[in-house]
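As a next step, we paired sequence with structure tokens, yielding the entry below.
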Amino acid sequence: MTRDPPARYVACVRGRDDGADAERIVEEAEALLAEDRLEEALLAYDRALAAGKDDVEVLLGAADLYVNRLPDDARDHEDLARGIELARRAARLARKAEDDALVGEAAWLEGAALNQLGRPAEALARLDAAAEALPDAVEVALERGIALYELCRWDDAREALRSAEALDRDDAWVQHHLGLVAERRGDEKEARRRFDRARKLAPDDFPRPIALSRPAFDAAVEKALAGVPEPVRRHLANVAITVEDLPSMDDLVGADPPLSPTILGLFRGAGFGRGAIETSAQLPSSIVLFQKNLERFARSREELAEEIRVTLVHEVGHFLGLDEDELYGRGLD
């Protein structure tokens, strides 16, 4: 997720030659970013960090780049880990300077990175601290709402997102997440209103979902299944492959920590080769794909068909006993 950064950070350390050099290099990096020269901009920020290793402004600016400003298709786990490291360094310096606002900025950046890494409980702790320091920052209230949504705390998420809305009624991300919360609370009318509002505010970020009829979606799943190699497909003979709109609460909170409400698919039951040791009460193994989440994820019918294929293969990987790290290593995350 890419959003505009908050107001520019206030430098904690001033008047040093290395700080002046770092500030000049940051300006160079920002100019490179404006020209979409990403690799050069990253190298420039590395130079700025070397020149101003104790400059809170440089540290927070670099953290913001790694956490929020890299394109979605260019940002990975290592980038987010780098952002967390920089934010924590900035927080230590800001605490020494007794600058609560800068400590809050660092906590927000760390929380945003943790959210993107799928660690919402850790994120919420940092975002609570950020909210205490920055009660009027819409970015903080929004990120808290996202963490609470990911933790399946619908009412708390709605409260946090409404606080964000009170700060900025025209933030498309706030409206979109209010729609997600309304959907989970069963208020379809409210959800549609919020999604439409987000789409009107930011049509590039929130295009209209690719909506298929259930028979058409089922046909896309069948086509994806036909592409699974025959030796693997033979093992799926007794595995039900189904489609549902959204994951149930039992699906989400049955895991620790809870699964994300935006998951695209899920494997339920005993994996391959384990059926004989399961009790008779064990539900049959099944793979379920979540249609609404998949449709929201895609920008075209072709992209939706590809994501159905990838998600199906991912869940087949779980059936075969691969964990998330193994799936990630094989490009099936």
Q: What stands out?
A: The two ends are 17 Å apart (CA to CA). The chain has a mean pLDDT of 87. The longest strand covers residues 240-244. The CA atoms of residues 298 and 304 lie 5 Å apart.
